[in-house]
């Protein structure tokens, strides 16, 4: 989370420092000048998690200072979306008036959308019973009466109770077109929705004149592939997490995408499959040779690509690499730039007021 000592007036300077750092990291690879995408300085984060502090009958959200590790009270959090802030203010008085719901509550997670929907997850150090469910329904009714479109979820050890459903549907306007994305509670979603739109639009512009098909590794809920499908004959995408695969399948159908196939595999497994090292039942009915993939998109976790996957990625004429860790990106570029050059590079400030950098490079084969 951001350093609480930073203010909005610090943002341009902090962004400039990130730009300089990333430029220096990419310099050994002859990268072109960075395309820099600034975040909104306030109310940009669509999800947030808070510990709950109980103090002599009072309870409130708290966070911990990343430097001092000291807790501090949070009644308003301008980093999070306006919808999360409204919910924070509304739910605490209701919880204070409902002792059964407040008892042993230790954390609240919020997931909001640009389409004004929100999931609230209440986390407990106790077993949740029928009485809890009855009170939770009353809490939800009170919040709905205040105008909130919400899903309420209770979590405890080996328990998850959804009063209705565990997902909400986001609508993102990308290059003037609305796309629906199902977002599942406790699954990965891009935290800065408006920056996510800029990332997808940048990826669309990179691949606008692409030939052949697209392969995407780590596709999540289809965040990129659903929109990018318009630029390709066919798209094959992989994802290992079951909830994300299910969400991606919904998104394909909801957005009327007819040239995108999702398979539940890790990047490492797909590398083994494409190299003929292993056979997988999950690939039954899918002939990998039906795809003429000229472009590959990778959006790996912070550890970057493993060595075998990097070698596999090198085989494709065009590589779109989205990275949440510029250091592991640069580790992978040591290999990728032996066969490819960086045509475009971008900094997307997903996480203002922190040292985290979301970056992307568009690579084209040179030999």
Structural write-up:
The protein is of the alpha/beta class and 367 residues long. Helix content is 29%, strand content 30%. The chain is built from ten helices and 17 strands. It has helices spanning 11-26, 82-96, 99-102, 130-145, 193-206, 225-228, 242-254, 267-274, 307-313, 326-336; strands at 35-37, 47-55, 58-64, 71-74, 105-112, 117-124, 149-156, 159-162, 167-174, 177-184, 213-217, 235-239, 260-264, 293-298, 318-323, 340-348, 358-365. The strands form three sheets. Strands 1-16-17-15-14-11-12-13 form an eight-stranded mixed sheet, sandwiched between helices. Strands 4-3-2-5-6-7-8 form a seven-stranded mixed sheet, covered by helices on one side. A two-stranded antiparallel ribbon has the order 9-10. 37% of the residues are buried. The mean pLDDT is 93.
What characteristics describe this protein?
367 residues; 17 strands; 7-stranded mixed β-sheet; globular; alpha/beta; 30% strand; 10 helices; 8-stranded mixed β-sheet
Rg over alpha carbons: 22 Å
Number of helices: 10
User: Percentage of helical residues?
Assistant: 25-40%
Strand content: 25-35%
- Strand order in the sheet with the most strands: 1-16-17-15-14-11-12-13
**Distance from first to last alpha carbon:** 43 Å
Average pLDDT reading: 93
- N-to-C series of helices and strands: HEEEEHHEEHEEEEHEHEHEHEHEHEE
Main sheet characteristics: 8 strands, mixed
Catalogue the unreliable spans.
Answer: none
């Amino acid at each position: 989370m951001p350093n609480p000592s930073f203010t909005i007036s610090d943002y341009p300077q902090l962004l400039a420092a990130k730009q300089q750092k990333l430029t220096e990291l990419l310099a050994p690879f002859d990268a072109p000048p960075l395309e820099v995408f600034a975040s909104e300085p306030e109310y940009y984060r669509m999800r947030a998690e808070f510990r709950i502090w109980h103090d002599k009958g009072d309870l409130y959200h708290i966070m911990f200072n990343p430097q001092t590790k000291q807790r501090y009270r949070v009644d308003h959090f301008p980093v999070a979306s306006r919808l999360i802030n409204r919910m924070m203010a509304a739910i605490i008085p209701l919880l204070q008036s409902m002792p059964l719901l407040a008892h042993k509550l230790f954390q609240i997670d919020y997931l909001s959308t640009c389409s004004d929907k929100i999931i609230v997850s209440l986390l407990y150090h106790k077993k949740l019973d029928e009485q809890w469910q009855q009170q939770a329904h009353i809490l939800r009714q009170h919040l709905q009466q205040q105008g909130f479109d919400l899903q309420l979820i209770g979590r405890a050890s080996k328990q998850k109770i959804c009063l209705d459903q565990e997902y909400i549907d986001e609508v993102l306007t990308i290059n003037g077109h609305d796309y629906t994305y199902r977002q599942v509670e406790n699954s990965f979603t891009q935290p800065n929705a408006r920056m996510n739109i800029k990332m997808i639009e940048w990826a669309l512009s990179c691949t606008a004149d692409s030939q052949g098909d697209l392969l995407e590794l780590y596709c999540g809920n289809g965040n990129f592939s659903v929109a990018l499908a318009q630029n390709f004959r066919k798209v094959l995408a992989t994802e290992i997490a079951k909830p994300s695969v299910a969400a991606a399948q919904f998104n394909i159908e909801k957005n009327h995408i007819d040239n995108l196939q999702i398979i539940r595999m890790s990047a490492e497994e797909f590398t083994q499959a494409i190299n003929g090292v292993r056979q997988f039942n999950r690939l039954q009915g899918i002939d990998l040779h039906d795809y003429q993939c000229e472009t590959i998109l990778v959006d790996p976790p912070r550890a970057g690509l493993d060595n075998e996957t990097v070698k596999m990625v090198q085989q494709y004429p065009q590589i779109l690499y989205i990275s949440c860790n510029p250091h592991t990106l640069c580790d992978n570029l040591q290999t990728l730039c032996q066969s490819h050059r960086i045509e475009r590079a971008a900094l997307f400030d997903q996480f203002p007021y922190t040292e985290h950098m979301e970056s992307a490079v568009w690579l084209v084969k040179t030999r």
